[in-house]
């Protein structure tokens, strides 16, 4: 009985092994068989011909419309003015979308002929955008194009803050002054992409005071009534290693009547002339013998109906470190230098001071009242009759001539020296 059990067990195991071998053979055959059941995996001539016909038909059905996107896909440091431009040839655009990485849509306008699309405004710096465009050819077949790009970052771009403002009317002494937010090493390339012109036909030349300030002016004061235009074509211009301009802007301003006022520190007077004719002589009080007023040609750069003047901000302090003066409501004040020289109203001085003595800390004081509300006061009249860009000349003061870069005062530099500071 024992022997018969052993023989039966062996027979069962052999049957399982045989079945496994057959099953394994089927699996191997299934994994390795070709299209005809053989071992070759290549397509048959019939199948190759069919695939070729399908490919050919697909190619013939491709849209003729060709879409181009500026900048190209993957672009970095892209322009904030000229990026995301979409154009099509041999077709018309049917849909364009521009979104930020988080899905925020950017508005744009499709040209009337359907051939181009562009954003409605300037893009943001250091932002990734995605653009998708669809066009249709004459046969109604669609073409699509997609691109992702990143605009230039603040660290890799520069801008120029300029004076005066677009559309303003200014005095004859107002230069075009541009202050860049980063140091410019390629001054020639930057200056060559800035144009300043006047309807007067006057030659206008730029002068670099340092790596961040570029001013433009003619040899003599601007002609009254002329229009001056500033064009900044700095988009993509390299100002320094890896730093590019982003501005593409045109501004213009008008030159008003010619007003030049001459302060005589010795006679304590200011003669106001418009278009060469004296319109008023005003008693003044200039800087005291200890705090004299700069001599030279100065340009009104700011106007404040009332402002605070604290001596500590300009270096006039007492033994305790406090300002020698702190007047919180100086009336009818107009800035002449960056270092703190103003022509302004004075309500705290005795009326007898004006026209007789110099008592200020370097400013030019005119009689006024507290609050700057009396139109009969000389300071009030002068404030109302002055423009930004008007010239105030100081003479006969026991001080040096103001530095050309201290305010908008480049007129104190000879024309030859001014031209020498141009990079082009």
From TrEMBL:
Domain L,D-TPase catalytic: 259-395
Keyword Transferase listed: yes
Protein's pathway: Cell wall biogenesis; peptidoglycan biosynthesis
InterPro entries for the chain: Big_10, LD-transpeptidase, LD_TPept_cat_dom, Transpep_catalytic_dom
Active site annotation, chain numbering: 344, 363
Gene3D superfamilies linked: 2.60.40.3710, 2.60.40.3780, L,D-transpeptidase catalytic domain-like
PANTHER family (UniProt xref): L,D-TRANSPEPTIDASE, L,D-TRANSPEPTIDASE YCIB-RELATED
Name of protein: Ig-like domain-containing protein
Organism: Streptomyces tremellae
């Amino acid at each position: 009985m024992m022997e018969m059990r052993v023989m039966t067990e062996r027979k069962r195991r052999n049957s399982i092994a045989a079945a496994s071998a057959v099953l394994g053979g089927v699996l191997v055959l299934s994994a390795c068989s070709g299209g005809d059941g053989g071992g070759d995996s290549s397509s048959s001539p019939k199948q190759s011909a069919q695939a070729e016909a399908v490919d050919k038909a697909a190619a013939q059905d491709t849209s003729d419309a060709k879409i181009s996107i500026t900048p190209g896909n993957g672009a970095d440091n892209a322009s904030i003015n000229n990026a995301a431009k979409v154009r099509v040839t041999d077709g018309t655009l049917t849909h364009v979308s521009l979104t930020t990485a988080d899905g925020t849509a950017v508005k744009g306008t499709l040209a009337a002929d359907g051939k181009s699309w562009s954003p409605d405004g300037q893009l943001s710096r250091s932002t990734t955008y995605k653009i998708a465009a669809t066009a249709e050819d004459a046969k109604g077949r669609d073409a699509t194009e997609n691109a992702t790009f990143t605009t230039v970052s603040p660290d890799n771009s520069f801008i120029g803050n300029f004076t005066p403002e677009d559309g303003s009317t200014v005095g004859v002494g107002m230069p075009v002054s541009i202050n860049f937010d980063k140091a410019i090493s390629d001054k020639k390339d930057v200056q060559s992409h800035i144009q300043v012109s006047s309807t007067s036909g006057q030659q206008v030349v730029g002068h670099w005071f340092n790596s961040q300030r570029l001013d433009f002016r003619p040899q003599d004061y601007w002609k009254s009534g002329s229009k001056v235009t500033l064009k900044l074509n700095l988009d993509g211009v390299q100002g320094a290693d890896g730093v590019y301009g982003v501005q593409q802007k045109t501004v213009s301003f008008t030159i008003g009547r010619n007003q030049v006022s001459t302060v005589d520190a010795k006679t304590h007077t200011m003669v106001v002339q418009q278009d060469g004719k004296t319109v008023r002589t005003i008693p003044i009080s200039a800087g005291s013998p200890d705090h004299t007023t700069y001599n030279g040609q100065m340009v009104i750069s700011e106007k404040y109906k009332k402002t605070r003047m604290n001596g500590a901000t300009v270096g006039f302090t007492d033994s305790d470190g406090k300002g020698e003066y702190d007047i919180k409501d100086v009336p009818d004040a107009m800035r002449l230098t960056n270092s703190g020289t103003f022509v302004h109203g004075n309500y705290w001085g005795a009326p007898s001071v004006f026209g007789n003595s110099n008592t200020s800390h370097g400013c030019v004081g005119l009689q006024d009242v507290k609050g700057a509300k009396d139109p009969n006061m000389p300071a009030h009249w002068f404030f109302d009759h002055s423009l930004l860009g008007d010239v105030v000349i100081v003479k006969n003061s026991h001080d040096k001539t103001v530095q050309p870069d201290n305010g908008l005062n480049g007129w104190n530099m000879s024309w030859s020296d001014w031209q020498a500071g141009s990079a082009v």
